[in-house]
Every structure is written in structure tokens, then in C-alpha cells.
Design goal:
CATH architecture of the largest domain: 3-Layer(aba) Sandwich
Distance between the termini: 81 Å
Number of domains: 2
Shape: globular
CATH superfamily of the largest domain: Periplasmic binding protein-like II
Helix content: 40-55%
CATH class of the largest domain: Alpha Beta
Radius of gyration: 22 Å
Structural class: alpha/beta
Number of strands: 15
Number of helices: 12
Strand content: 15-25%
Length: 301
């Protein structure tokens, strides 16, 4: 009798678990399935109140807070505010390598890139961008006392033995190539922690990053072995000093979503709410993008 009751209880528990898993599966399927009845992505995310965002786990732009297990950073924080104004309350974060963000967006693994991705003409041929949310310069992380005296990409070019580390798919890789740094001087890493290990281990002499990324990485490392290169000179390409403008990425066909997002973004950027939100990530008035638009940046030579 006891064994029979125990068996019934076990079966009941298993049945309840299966029902729960099935319900969760339906929710996930509903949020991730293709648009129905030719509806747009905007219509779907408003109908389901759910959206998937892609990020590359790069602080301070978009990363997983290991203490809270929540995605955070400048881009996800802004995305949550803007999307809530569009009636989308549930944000599902999907992490991937930086170089896989654009392919992942186009393959519909997620609906928006929220990784602080720079707007470039090359990327703009593949996806569409919101107007920028910030503008910053570049930097190098080097060994203590900068033994090769590297303060620019030109310095790397002029020092044949120097090697720099870049993250795969990053603009820094393109900057180096545009400024004549040889391919055998460029070492590509999947992420910046790996690049820093390469720097400390002597595999490379500098890590090319954005200025805010350099600050964040060095703050977390708390290491006397490495430092930020002083008096760094931002790259000058085709006579123009390069300044990176970060934004959100959209599929080209999602015009209504991008336009709705941009409309809310225009009201939000440079507001007291915006500046308070991004301050913990190192952004302030000095990193505001001004009136530069995605269209202008996409058409730059």
C-alpha cells in the first residue's frame, strides 16, 4: 500500500513537472517563433511583450553581472528603458562572441544588438543602426612603463617587432589594418580577458580597445603589470580623427522597429534620466554623441 501511494505521488510530481516544462516551452516558443500573419518584428514584440537582445559580454557596454546574474551595461540599460516605452517588458539576453553579433542578428537568433557596437559603413551594409547613444576615443593597454613606447597605431606600424591584440570583429582590427599595421603584427582574440593574458604573457605588446573599455578592464584587473598608454593618439584615417559612435543594431527589414526605437531614443538621450542611468558605467556628458546620425556615419568614406 505504501509503495503504491509513493508511486502515485512520484507520478503526480513528474506529471506536474512535465506540465510546467511544457508551459515554459510554450512561452519560449511564443517569444521566439517567426512573425505570424506577415506581422513585423515590432508587432510581434509588442504582442508578446518580449524581445531578445544580443550582447558580447564586454563591459561597460553590455555584460553579465555575475553577482546578480542579470545583463547590464550602457546598451542593455538603455534598451530596457526604450523598449518599456514601446510596451515590451520582457528582455531576454543572448550572449555571443562580438564577431557573431551581426550574423546572429541576421539569422534571427535575437532581435536587436545591444552591445554598444560602433556604426561603420561596412557594418551598415549588413544591418541598420539606431542613432548613436555615445561617442568615445581609443586607447592601448600596455605593459607597465610601456617598454616599446606605443602611443598610437602608427607607433605599432613603425616598430616592426611590435604586436597588438584586438577582439575579433572589432573596429580596432580595421583601424590597425587601415593604418598599415601588418597582419603578422595583429593577434585576434575572442575576448579582452584573453588578450590581457596574452599581454602579460609576452605574446603581444598592447591591447587595442576603446578608452572606456581600458578603464573598466584595468579597474577590474588591479594589476601592476599593465597600464593604459599615456597621451594616446586617436587614429587619423583619410584625414579625419576617428571617434567611435556606439548604437543599437537592427535587421534592415525591421524599419518600423528601428524608427519607433529612434523616436523614443531622441527624447531620452541627454535627459537627466539618461545621464543618471549611464553614469555607473563611466559615461557622462563628455561621451554624448551630439547631433550625429546613423545615416551620416554609414556614409562616411
Amino acid at each position: 500500500m505504501f509503495d503504491e501511494e509513493k508511486s502515485q505521488i512520484s507520478l503526480t510530481g513528474i506529471l506536474a513537472l512535465l506540465i510546467l516544462l511544457a508551459a515554459l516551452g510554450v512561452i519560449f516558443w511564443q517569444a521566439n517563433r517567426s512573425n505570424v500573419n506577415n506581422e513585423t518584428t515590432l508587432a510581434r514584440i509588442q504582442r508578446t511583450a518580449t524581445i531578445r537582445i544580443g550582447f558580447a559580454n564586454e563591459a561597460p557596454y553590455g555584460y553579465l553581472n555575475t553577482k546578480t546574474d542579470q545583463v547590464t551595461g550602457e546598451a542593455p540599460a538603455i534598451a530596457k528603458v526604450i523598449l518599456s516605452k514601446l510596451g515590451v517588458k520582457n528582455v531576454v539576453p543572448i550572449v555571443t562572441d562580438f564577431g557573431s553579433l551581426i550574423p546572429g542578428l541576421k539569422a534571427k537568433r535575437f532581435d536587436i544588438i545591444a552591445a554598444g557596437m560602433y556604426i561603420t559603413p561596412q557594418r551598415s551594409r549588413e544591418i541598420a543602426f539606431s542613432n548613436p547613444t555615445y561617442a568615445i576615443g581609443e586607447s592601448f593597454i600596455v605593459k607597465a612603463d610601456n617598454p616599446l613606447d606605443l602611443h598610437s597605431y602608427e607607433d605599432v606600424h613603425d616598430h616592426p617587432a611590435a604586436k597588438i591584440g584586438v577582439m575579433g570583429g572589432s573596429v580596432e582590427q580595421g583601424y590597425a589594418e587601415s593604418l598599415g599595421v601588418r597582419n603578422d603584427q595583429i593577434v585576434v582574440f575572442a575576448d579582452y580577458p584573453s588578450a590581457l593574458l596574452g599581454l602579460k604573457g609576452g605574446r603581444i605588446d598592447a591591447v587595442a580597445v576603446t578608452d572606456l573599455t581600458a578603464n573598466d578592464l584595468l579597474q577590474k584587473q588591479q594589476s601592476d603589470e599593465i597600464e593604459k598608454a599615456t597621451d594616446f593618439q586617436d587614429p587619423v584615417i583619410d584625414g579625419k580623427t576617428i571617434r567611435g559612435y556606439g548604437a543599437f543594431g537592427f535587421r534592415k527589414e525591421d524599419v518600423d522597429l528601428r524608427e519607433a526605437f529612434n523616436k523614443q531614443l531622441a527624447k531620452f538621450i541627454d535627459s537627466p534620466e539618461h545621464l543618471k542611468l549611464v553614469k555607473p558605467f563611466g559615461f557622462d556628458r563628455s561621451t554624448l554623441p551630439g547631433n550625429v546620425t546613423a545615416k551620416e556615419l554609414a556614409q562616411q568614406p
